[in-house]
TrEMBL record:
Residues 8-124 form the Glycosyltransferase 2-like domain. The chain crosses the membrane at residues 263-282. Keywords: Membrane, Transmembrane, Transmembrane helix. This is Glycosyltransferase 2-like domain-containing protein. It comes from the Bacteria. InterPro entries: Glyco_trans_2-like, Nucleotide-diphossugar_trans. Coiled coil: none annotated.
Length: 314
């Protein structure tokens, strides 16, 4: 039977926070009409047992299913496995490090009802202290890279229209793309444009999907009345590595390269990297002569050139 909402949560060695996410979500769902699928990306037998014991009440009640995969093929692939396992009117993709505040699901459904042209809706993402997170964005372009690497006010002001983050708003907005930490997607979107591109192991898959969605004529809505806490960085090492200036994992750079090559071609990817180098030169000049140090992950100059074939998932 087709469900109203099927929630997909990817678990990779995060059983405790996955359980917390589920516990915050279940009271807001209709046990007859809705379902949750926990897709485990090959975390290992011990992790599966932790999930089973921690979620026993919910699996016994039939509202939660644990779907173990034999390989970790990434965020997109895991979500695709969950989507194909559960026919539904809406698919709620949620990171395991999210906590649903009361009224979040009702709010998202209200937004969907008031905006029938919206193929995808996102809530307001918050820190635990209720401060809003940046979760809505402009599409990245090669010029974005000089902003990112220069990381200085004059360059950001000069290329403001290419600056990706959008400040959180209290009213409904229609961003070019929104974070997939938590999104509600209509089934008709998936039927029209397909599943997530599993060539993106992790990161940039949300940008790609929003571009495809908009190209197909759907709208995107950020509905801030629905509020979700996002414990950013608990389900991925990338945010922590950025703060500590450690080298980011290869899959981040492979996804970045895939995005630029997919939408701007090989020349666009080359241009993006050249602009990154120019921006980094500006940043280093300010660091040496003005004492303004800017955090840059280790080996970024080399890592931005990492790329894989575009064929998979196209």
């Amino acid at each position: 039977m087709k469900k109203r909402i099927c929630t997909i949560i990817i678990n990779y060695k995060t059983a405790l926070i996955t359980r917390n996410c589920v516990e915050s979500l279940v009271p807001q769902l209709n046990s007859d009409a809705d379902h949750i699928i926990i897709v485990d990306n090959n975390s290992g037998d011990a992790e599966i047992e932790l999930l089973k014991s921690g979620l026993m009440d919910f699996t016994s009640a039939g509202i939660v299913t644990i779907l173990p995969l034999n390989a970790n093929n990434g965020f997109s692939s895991g979500n695709n496995a969950g989507i194909t396992a559960c026919p539904a009117e809406f698919y709620l993709l949620a990171n395991s490090d999210t906590l649903f505040l009361p009224g979040a699901i009702t709010g998202l459904l209200e937004g969907a009802s008031k905006h029938p042209d919206a193929g995808l809706l996102s809530p307001r993402l918050e820190w635990p202290d209720e401060i809003p997170q940046v979760s809505c964005f402009r599409f990245p372009s090669p010029l974005t890279e000089i902003i990112r690497s220069a990381n200085t006010g004059p360059i950001t002001s000069l290329f403001r229209r290419y600056d990706v983050p959008l400040a959180p708003e209290k009213h409904v907005t229609h961003p070019e793309w929104t974070s997939f930490a938590c999104v509600l997607i209509r089934d008709k979107v998936i039927k029209k444009i397909g599943l997530l591109d599993d060539g993106f192991f992790m990161y940039h898959e949300d940008i790609d999907y929003c571009r495809r969605l908009r190209q197909a004529g759907f709208n995107i809505v950020n509905w801030p009345e629905a509020r979700v806490i996002h414990l950013q960085g608990k389900s991925s090492e990338v945010d922590n590595n950025k703060r500590e200036k450690k080298s980011l994992p290869d899959y981040f750079y492979h996804s970045r390269a895939r995005y630029y090559r997919k939408y701007y071609g090989n020349i666009g990817f080359l241009t993006a990297n050249i602009l990154w180098i120019i921006g980094r030169g500006i940043s280093m000049f300010r660091q040496v002569f003005m004492g303004n140090e800017r955090p840059v992950p280790q080996r970024e100059f080399f890592n931005i050139w990492k790329s894989k074939s575009l064929r998979k998932g196209m």
